[in-house]
């Protein structure tokens, strides 16, 4: 699935390059900032105990910096650096996991405690093509780069047979740097010659980090080995022409 997505992003890059034929005007390079919400998608959003890729990701805050350098008419290179927070395990989800572990381990009961949260920064770079119509500009960008994880949720699991603890382990928080890719569409409205109000949507996907455990002696029950990331960030911001 990941390789198919890479192929799609490469095809989009070729498509953007072909669109330069017939471009008539040089678009101004720019830089800017933005803020908004990051929405978890797919497996990353899933809360299914039996889905080992379920990430329990949430809607959260995102903000960052963005810019593009146009080297040939409407074609340029765009780059962004974005922080996003996709939440932590809540009580309902912890209880759902506890019920799943209780069943998987044939225990009398289980207690699950979650700490830490998804905090990431992505740095992305790629070709960008801009369509212009009056005061409106539409930017399309295909990017690749890195996703830096500062933390992911950490889950502590305690299993009991009556009053006796029969197992205890925890899923460690991940802190690593992994590859990521993105597709971005931004609609800019010209407020003045060099100032633009920008609405931006960015899809981000990554295979995500490897997940490790401490104290686990069996593969019974839910076992996450890698946590994929899939989000769409919707933001508003200001861009300034250079």
Describe this structure in words.
The protein is mainly β. It has a single domain (2-19, 28-241), classed as Porin, CATH 2.40.160. It has three helices and twelve strands. The protein has helices at 2-18, 42-45, 91-104, and strands at 30-40, 60-72, 75-85, 109-115, 119-133, 136-151, 154-161, 164-171, 176-190, 195-206, 213-214, 229-241. The strands form two sheets. Strands 1-2-3-5-6-9-10-12 form an eight-stranded antiparallel β-barrel. A four-stranded antiparallel sheet has the order 4-7-8-11. A hairpin with a 2-residue loop joins strand 5 (119-133) and strand 6 (136-151). The longest helix has 17 residues, at 2-18.
Strand arrangement in the largest pleated sheet = 1-2-3-5-6-9-10-12
Helix content: 10-25%
Radius of gyration: 22 Å
- What percentage of amino acids are in beta strands? over 45%
Count of discrete structural domains = 1
Question: Can you count the helices?
Answer: 3
Judging from the principal axes of the Cα atoms, what is the shape? elongated
Distance between the termini: 39 Å
**CATH-scheme architecture:** Beta Barrel
- Mean of residue pLDDT values: 92
Biggest sheet architecture: 8 strands, antiparallel, barrel
Order of helices and strands: HEHEEHEEEEEEEEE
The counted number of beta strands is: 12
Structural class: mainly beta
The stretches of 5 or more residues where confidence is low (pLDDT under 50) are: none
CATH class equals: Mainly Beta
């Amino acid at each position: 699935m990941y390789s198919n997505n890479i192929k799609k992003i490469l095809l989009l890059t070729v498509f953007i390059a072909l669109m330069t034929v017939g471009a008539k005007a040089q678009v101004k390079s720019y830089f800017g900032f933005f803020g908004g919400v990051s929405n978890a998608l797919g497996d990353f959003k899933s809360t299914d105990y039996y889905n080992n890729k379920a990430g329990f990701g949430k809607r959260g805050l995102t903000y960052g910096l963005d810019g593009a350098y146009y080297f040939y008419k409407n074609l340029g290179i765009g780059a962004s650096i974005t922080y996003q927070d996709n939440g932590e395990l809540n009580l309902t989800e912890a209880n759902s996991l506890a019920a799943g572990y209780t069943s998987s381990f044939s225990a009398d009961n289980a207690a699950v405690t979650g700490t830490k949260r998804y905090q990431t920064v992505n740095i992305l770079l790629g070709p960008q093509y801009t369509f212009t119509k009056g005061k409106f500009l539409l930017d399309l960008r295909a990017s690749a780069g890195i996703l830096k994880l500062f933390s992911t949720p950490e889950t502590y699991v305690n299993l009991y047979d009556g009053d006796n603890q029969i197992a205890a382990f925890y899923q460690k928080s991940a802190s690593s740097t992994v590859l990521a890719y993105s597709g971005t569409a931004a609609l800019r409205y010209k407020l003045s010659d060099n100032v633009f109000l920008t609405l931006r949507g960015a899809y981000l996907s990554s295979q995500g980090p490897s997940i490790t455990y401490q104290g686990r002696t069996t593969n019974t029950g839910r076992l996450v080995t890698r946590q994929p990331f899939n989000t769409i960030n919707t933001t508003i911001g200001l861009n300034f022409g250079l």
